[in-house]
Amino acid sequence: PVIVENKPGAGGNTGSAEVAHATDGHTLLMGTVGTHAINASLYPKMPFDPVKDFAPVTLVAAVPNVLVLNPANAQKYGIQSVADLVRVARAQPGKLNMCSSGNGTSIHLAGELFKSLTATYMIHFPYRGSGPALLDLMGGNMDLMFDNLPSALPHIRSGKLKALAVTSARRSEALPELPTIAESGVPELKAFE
Description:
Layout: H1 13-20, H2 33-42, E1 65-69, H3 71-77, H4 82-91, E2 97-100, H5 106-118, E3 123-126, H6 130-138, E4 144-148, H7 149-158, E5 162-166
Parallel strand pairs: 2-3, 2-4
Antiparallel strand pairs: 1-4, 1-5
C-alpha cells in the first residue's frame, strides 16, 4: 500500500524536510524544481540539503507553464498574441498585473524572465497557491499568469482562460495548436518546464 500525504508550506520545504529526516527507508518525495533548485536561493536557512539529503529515483514529469489571460481583460486591451501582450505592456508599463502561485515559484520566475526578456513591466501579485491566483484571474481581478499547464488546462478548454503560448521548447501535445513563447517572438524563453 502507498499513502500519499500532501505537506504544503514554505514553497515545498515543509514536506521535503519531513522526508529528508525520515528514518524508515520507505518515505519518498515528489520533489520539484522549487524544492530542489529554487528554494535554496530564496531561503537563508534550509531545513534540508537538496543534494545530500535525497537520492534521485526517476524523472516523473516535465510540465510546461502556459501563459494565460483573463479573456475579458485580453479583449479590453486588444491582446490576442504574445506580440500584442508585449506591445501593450511596453506602451503602458505597470498597467497590466501578473499573478503567480507565490514568490519564487517556477510560475513567478517564468513571468519575471518573460518581463526581463521583453523589456516590459507588469506588477506581480503573489498568491498562496495556484488555485487562489486562478480564481482571481478568471474573476477578472488579475490580467495574466504563467501557470502549470495541468491546472490551467480545464479552464483554457472551457473558455474561462485565454492561452497565448507554452514555455516549453516544443508545443504541448495537450494543446498542439498553441505556439511556444519562442515561436511567438521571445526565442530566449524556452524549455521552462
